[in-house]
Amino acid sequence: MHVNGNKPAWNVNVSGKGMVLEREGLAPLALPYVEEKLPDGSFSVSSEANNQRIEIWVAPQRCVDSVNGSVQHLTAELRINGQAQRGCGYYGGSRDE
Predict the structure, then answer these.
(1) What is the rounded CA–CA span in Å between residue 31 and residue 28?
(2) How buried is residue 43: exposed, middle or buried, by Cβ count under 10 Å (0-12/13-18/19+)?
(3) N or C end of the chain, less CB within 10 A?
(4) What's the domain count of the chain?
(5) Could you say which DSSP state residue 94 is in?
(6) Closest Cα to residue 43, out of 85, 95, 92, 97?
(7) 97 within a domain of the structure (yes/no)
(8) What is the residue range of 43's domain?
(9) Is 95 part of any domain?
């Protein structure tokens, strides 16, 4: 799965091997994660490392990128220590990769 947002730019790639968080001006951060699925089809991916709590909340809902106008099929919210940034996402290849 790939999710990303703008202002400031960020993106997260999630696979069976872990997740990698990239944020504008910072080095990429590779983390293990726990996934929680909810009955409505939404789910969260979260990790606690380096004194930070990182959560990504994803829902199967149409999402339009605020910068380039591309349409994706997942809405996403990145929360780092309680501060939220919104974005969009999509599944890439197999979810089990």
Answers:
(1) 10
(2) middle
(3) C
(4) 1
(5) -
(6) 95
(7) no
(8) 2-90
(9) no
